[in-house]
């Protein structure tokens, strides 16, 4: 990863606790699915998935969840807000579209995100659209409630213009919510009960990633066809 100076374009609160940050960079190339590190004045380096696709360079998009004022994420957002330029390290990560999986001509690519794991999966989805990928792609994004949905304009555009499917699934439904409800993996399996010929990219918390994999593997998804950044920093315990 290389040190890069990034110009801060916008910092916008796009729902109750998620910030969309756009940066402008020069001399950077990355692969859809990779991440960057925001370097703080303390020397701390905080990883965030790049939420935009390579064809959108020199602009980069980040989605940062700030749960409370004491969180590291709050410190990151305040640092970005207060500077015209910040230092980032990029790119990093091997959960991306050039890991060889596309060379196998997969029958079906599952893109599964929980919460702000949306950023990485959005980048993968956008790149597959941009590259005119002709296979079957299904994007599932799970959030707790309707209030946790963000990037509404992007979702609308994707629904109207993308050749691939996209479902937002809320765990806690309401009378206002007209979309899918319940557990994310249940929606995936209702739509695709046989995953033996599928590959999956999964982004979210450690518990979400492994909990989802446990369910999908019961329906034929192979570990060898499953990809997540979680595998690198929180290896899965061996099953008994």
UniProtKB/TrEMBL annotation:
CDD domains: flavin_oxioreductase (cd06189)
Classification via Pfam families: NAD_binding_1 (PF00175)
PROSITE patterns from the UniProt entry: FAD_FR
Keyword Oxidoreductase: yes
Stored InterPro entries: FAD-bd_FR_type (IPR017927), FNR_nucleotide-bd (IPR039261), MRET (IPR050415), OxRdtase_FAD/NAD-bd (IPR001433), Riboflavin_synthase-like_b-brl (IPR017938)
Top-rank taxon, per record: Bacteria
Keywords of the record: Luminescence, Oxidoreductase
Domain named FAD-binding FR-type: residues: 1-98
PANTHER family: NAD(P)H-FLAVIN REDUCTASE, NADH OXIDOREDUCTASE HCR
Family stated for the protein in its record: Belongs to the Fre/LuxG FAD/NAD(P) flavoprotein oxidoreductase family.
Protein name (Swiss-Prot/TrEMBL): NAD(P)H-flavin reductase
């Amino acid at each position: 990863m290389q040190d890069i100076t990034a110009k801060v374009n916008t910092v916008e609160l796009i729902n109750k606790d998620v910030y969309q940050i756009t940066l402008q960079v020069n001399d950077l190339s990355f692969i859809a699915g990779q991440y960057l590190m925001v370097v703080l004045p303390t020397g701390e380096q905080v990883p965030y998935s790049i939420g935009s696709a390579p064809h959108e360079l020199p602009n980069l998009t980040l989605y940062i969840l700030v749960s409370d004022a004491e969180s590291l994420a709050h410190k990151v957002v305040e640092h970005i807000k207060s500077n015209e330029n910040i230092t980032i390290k990029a790119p990093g990560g091997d959960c991306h579209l050039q890991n060889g999986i596309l060379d196998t001509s997969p029958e079906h690519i599952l893109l599964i995100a929980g919460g702000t794991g949306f950023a990485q999966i959005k980048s993968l989805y956008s790149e597959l659209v941009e590259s005119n990928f002709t296979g079957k792609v299904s994007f599932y994004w799970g959030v707790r409630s309707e209030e946790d949905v963000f990037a509404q304009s992007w979702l609308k555009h994707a629904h109207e213009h993308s050749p691939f499917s996209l479902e937002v699934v809320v765990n806690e439904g309401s009378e206002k919510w007209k979309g899918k409800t319940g557990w994310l993996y249940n929606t995936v399996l209702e739509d695709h009960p046989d995953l033996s010929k599928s590959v999956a990219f999964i982004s979210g918390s450690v518990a979400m990633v492994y909990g989802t994999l446990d369910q999908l593997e019961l329906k034929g998804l192979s570990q060898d066809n499953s990809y997540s950044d979680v595998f690198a920093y929180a290896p899965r315990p061996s099953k008994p």
